[in-house]
Amino acid sequence: MPTFLDFEKPIAELEGKIEELRHLATSGDINIAEEVSRLQAKVDRLLRQTYAKLTPWQKTLVARHPERPHLKDYIQELIDDFTPLAGDRLYADDAAIIGGIGRFRGWSAMIVGQEKGSDTETRVRHNFGMAKPEGYRKAQRLMHLADRYKLPVVSLVDTPGAYPGIGAEERGQAEAIARCIATCLKIEVPLVSVIIGEGGSGGAIALAAANTVLMLEHAVYSVISPEGCASILWRSAEHAQDAAEALKLTAADLLKLKVIDGIVPEPLGGAHRDRAAAIDAVGDAVEGALAQLRNGSDDYKAHRRAKFLAMGSQMPEIR
User: Fold this and answer.
1) Quick one: 20 and 111 in the same domain?
2) pLDDT of 32 over the 60 cut
3) Contact at 8 Å (CB) between 248 and 316?
4) Cβ contact 96:127 at 8 Å
5) Distance separating alpha carbons of residues 37 and 47, to the nearest angstrom
6) Phi, psi (deg, nearest 5) at residue 199
7) Are residues 134 and 257 in the same domain?
8) I want to staple 133 with a disulfide (CB 3.0 to 4.6 A). Which of 171, 220, 302, 304 is the partner?
9) What are phi and psi of 293, to 5 degrees?
């Protein structure tokens, strides 16, 4: 059975009934196809209604869903002949950030992003997608390598934020993030970034200062997590829902604010309900973005500079 979020309880109950009926059908000669079909139609209708009016906090929960496809899933399905490259050549290899060279739909490309892990063991190994300075320095190294060999860079962002530990701060976390952002802006090859889950804080921006920034429909992208914002403003994480509303962290809000360039639709009920379809949709969006960049001006560095300098100069009013 899939993992259901709190607001999906009515859907969970209906899907539970469907499973019970299917179990009965396999244990006898009972024909329940018509009833299953009726309940499934009801589930689809309820999913459509529920996901059409998700609050920013509910979208945050969907973006964090444990069954949502992660970086490794995208690499496995979209990248051929992937060769991972490890280490920052200064301190260590950071498992929170994975990167390497592969072939994306016929194009050689550099792929880099955060990996959260899919179970307890892998989440601990990848530090829940929270990179340390060596992770961002690895990303810098890989982008410089891509620049040298004229390879486009595709970054897939999924992190609650950079790791806030004492050791990370001692090794220059802020400096590493700042230099990673600067590297994104300096390289002279196309850079396309997709927020596939959480885009949290500078840890996300470090890989997303791109020519084209896309977001999955139910992903979130913000300067701080709702809980962190609530802890600062209200002195209590209990106000996370209010913070999520105020932060304008949804794809629709960010497209209106011109912080991102496009939204990638998700399957009905979120990417976790149809992982293959979600991954294909991201692949199509990235392929389209790279083709559009290649058909335009070849001064990708100037394009990024102009894009980010213009950001906020004509800010639409958001209420």
Assistant:
1) no
2) yes
3) no
4) yes
5) 15
6) -115, 90
7) yes
8) 171
9) -65, -40
Query: Are the beta carbons of 142 and 110 closer than 8 angstroms?
Result: yes
Tell me the chain's radius of gyration from C-alpha atoms: 21
Helix (H) or strand (E) holding 243: helix 240-247
**Strands 107-114 and 97-104, how do they pair?**
antiparallel
Residues 175 and 249 in one domain: yes
Helix (H) or strand (E) holding 215: strand 212-216
Mean pLDDT, all residues of the chain? 91
Record the tokens describing residue 137, joined without a space: 């320095």
Please give the Cα distance from 22 to 125 (Å, whole number).
38
Q: Which amino acid is present at 140?
A: Q
CATH number at residue 96: 3.90.226.10
Whether residue 237 has pLDDT greater than 90: no
- pLDDT at residue 19 greater than cutoff 80: no
Domain residues for 250? 60-310
Output the six-digit token pair for 8: 């999906």
| Cα gap 316→111, rounded to integer Å | 33
Lowest mean pLDDT among 39-53, 156-170, 229-243: 39-53
Nearest to 311, CA basis, from 234, 208, 179, 239: 208
Question: Residue 266 in contact with residue 273, Cβ under 8 Å?
Answer: no
Pairing status of strand 212-216 against strand 191-200: parallel
Query: Are residues 118 and 168 in contact, defined by beta-carbon separation less than 8 angstroms?
Result: no
Global pTM exceeds 0.85 = yes
Residue with tokens 């230099």, as numbered in its chain:
179
Q: How many domains does the chain have?
A: 2
